[in-house]
Design a protein that fits this description.
The chain is mainly alpha-helical and 271 residues long. The protein has one domain (23-152, 195-270). The protein has helices at 3-20, 39-55, 63-86, 125-128, 131-146, 149-161, 164-173, 175-186, 200-216, 223-233, 241-245, 250-270, and strands at residues 23-25, 32-34, 99-103, 110-113, 117-121. The strands form 2 sheets. The protein has a 3-stranded mixed sheet with strand order 3-5-4. A two-stranded antiparallel sheet has the order 1-2. Strand 1 (23-25) and strand 2 (32-34) form a beta hairpin.
Length: 271
Amino acid sequence: MNTKTSHFIVLAAVLLAFISTSCSTVPLTGRSQVNLLPESNMVEMSLTSYDQFLDTNKVASNRQQVEMVKRAGQKIASAVEQYLKSNGYESYLQYFKWEFNLIENEVPNAWCMPGGKVVVYTGILPLTQSEAGLAVVMGHEIAHAVARHGNERMSHSMLVQMGGIALGEAIKEKPEQTQAIFSAAYGVGSQVGVMLPFSRQHEYEADQMGLIFMAIAGYNPQEAVGFWQRMAQNSGQKPPEFLSTHPVDAKRIEALQEIMPEAMKYYNSSK
């Protein structure tokens, strides 16, 4: 065995060991995932991007709409906390400092940063049509954060761009590069602050989790099917930004309907 081969085997072994110790379980779905970065660092980086976004975007002034966003957000946040505490994930709560903002922007969009910083654009309100419809959107976006999909996606990017050996010290030794990867993963530097698309697996997972969270919060999960149907019908020739990162098709709506009986159990219990 030559030296080059030996080094490759050692590198592979170290990387495999590193990844194996970085596995975690997604709440509610039980899926195993690899999150290589401490969630505390994800939250720290998200705060930097979130503050920059708020500095360059106008917070909505419509009192009724703002109160609706904050009310729906707080109810879903309480549902998330209730679920995590009741199912052995209470440690997740230390990273959430909830905040909900409605931004003046005609683009139909919404997102949630790691740590619970949630932004809704006024452009999506005509499609949500009601507080329950809004809860569909906010539950879905909050589910991405609870499932740590951002960490998972960024971990994959760092493996490709930095390599396994560099990961352990990447945040300390290359903070600017790490922040750049975070910004690229979340797309916060773009004109409308839109996140890059999550994988189909992440989308389905956020659908399932979001449906349960909104049901626990007391919102009828059946509103989800109508919302996604409206999104699909209003896409036209050029899909809105929210649809570009959240593709809607018959299979997705079918998957929502398959989850519905379980979600309705939570909804009926909440009443």
